[in-house]
Amino acid sequence: MSSPQLNPVSRAPGTRRLGVSTVAVILLGAVAYWQWVGAADRREDALRLAKEGRLAEAEPLLQATVERDGNDAEVVAALALAKLGGTDAGAAERYLSKWCELRPTEARPFQLRMDLRHRVARGLALQADRQRVMETALSDGRRALELDPTNDPVRREVAWLALQVGRFFDAEIECRRCLAASPRDGWLNYLLAKICHAQGKRTDAEAAIDPVVRARPDFAEALVLRATLYYESEQPDSAVALLRQALALKECPRRECLYRLGLALAATGQPDEAKKALAEVDLLNLTGAVANDYFPNNPAMRVQIAEAMLGVGRLSDANAELDTLLAADPNFAPAHRVKAVYYDRVGQPAQAAEHRRRTAQDAP
């Protein structure tokens, strides 16, 4: 009698397929887990590098982390700081704004964005653009003060920004609050004097600025402001003395100082000296505009610069500029016209006459 056959265990239809699917899910879950673990590790590495000040290494890791989770406030803050400390600080505003959005009760991101916007505003060519960006900076400063009313550096900046955008009443309030804690602070008293001057409070402005000028004869901006007050009170001789003192200082706001000096010299009966000072203002305006691409650096503009150089007595510089222009275009009539003025100034009338002839000959 044959031994009985053992039948294999029967499987329900689709059992093998179910096992494969389960394994696939487990594998995908494992991959996702390890990706999550890896991302978490990279996040921690990025934050560690940022805290160590290794911003160039941290930035790409922070960027990748933010792309995965744009609401990670700690990483957004670190990336904003990395951008501020890098070569493209302007790119930080996007992340500072996100930081402000994610942490609306923290003063720091608003303060940093205020500082950045103020810096950006100073580099803008058009007054309207500067005003617009400074208004946004002022708004950030006010928000930072709401969150941290004891922050004196922010309050000083708010006072300055309020002055710049014409909010004189607000500027005076904030400035006086700062002065309550530091009544002898030279910069704050200078700021108060500027605010009072802008409001037509000349007596208050003089009272604020006089101690600063006495204590800080090296404070060029204060000297210029006091000179302006002297000029406006019909004391141009006193203004001239202070403006000449300011011009000798390294940190002098030279363009404004020369302009004020030109006005004061004219009021003291020194028209030739006044013209020379104002000619230097023209030269600074022209060279600055060309350097900052506000005006084209073309031959017509170079002739104007050469003419301004003659006005301030820089004869050799003007002559070299004109020679360069005429070497490039011997028939350039504007250059011949100014060249004639140059030869008049150096006492060579024959050469001056020749260039005037060339001016008429070459003019279109």
Share of residues in strands? under 5%
Shape: flat
This entry's quaternary arrangement is single chain
Instruction: Please give the CATH architecture of the largest domain.
Output: Alpha Horseshoe
CATH C-level class of the largest domain = Mainly Alpha
Q: SSE order in H/E notation?
A: HHHHHHHHHHHHHHHHHH
Structural class, from secondary structure content? mainly alpha
Mean pLDDT across all amino acids: 87
Q: In which range does the helix fraction lie? A: over 70%
List keywords for this structure.
single chain; 364 residues; mainly alpha; Serine Threonine Protein Phosphatase 5, Tetratricopeptide repeat; 4 domains; 18 helices; flat
Provide a descriptive summary of the structure in words.
This protein has 364 residues and is mostly helical. It folds into four domains: 41-102, Serine Threonine Protein Phosphatase 5, Tetratricopeptide repeat (Alpha Horseshoe), CATH 1.25.40; 105-215, Serine Threonine Protein Phosphatase 5, Tetratricopeptide repeat; 217-295, Alpha Horseshoe (Serine Threonine Protein Phosphatase 5, Tetratricopeptide repeat); 297-364, Tetratricopeptide repeat domain (Serine Threonine Protein Phosphatase 5, Tetratricopeptide repeat, Alpha Horseshoe). Helix content is 77%, strand content 0%. The protein has 18 helices and no strands. It has helices at 15-51, 55-68, 73-85, 92-102, 107-122, 127-147, 152-164, 168-181, 186-198, 202-215, 220-232, 236-247, 254-267, 271-291, 299-311, 315-328, 333-345, 349-362. Helix 5 packs antiparallel against helix 6 (127-147).
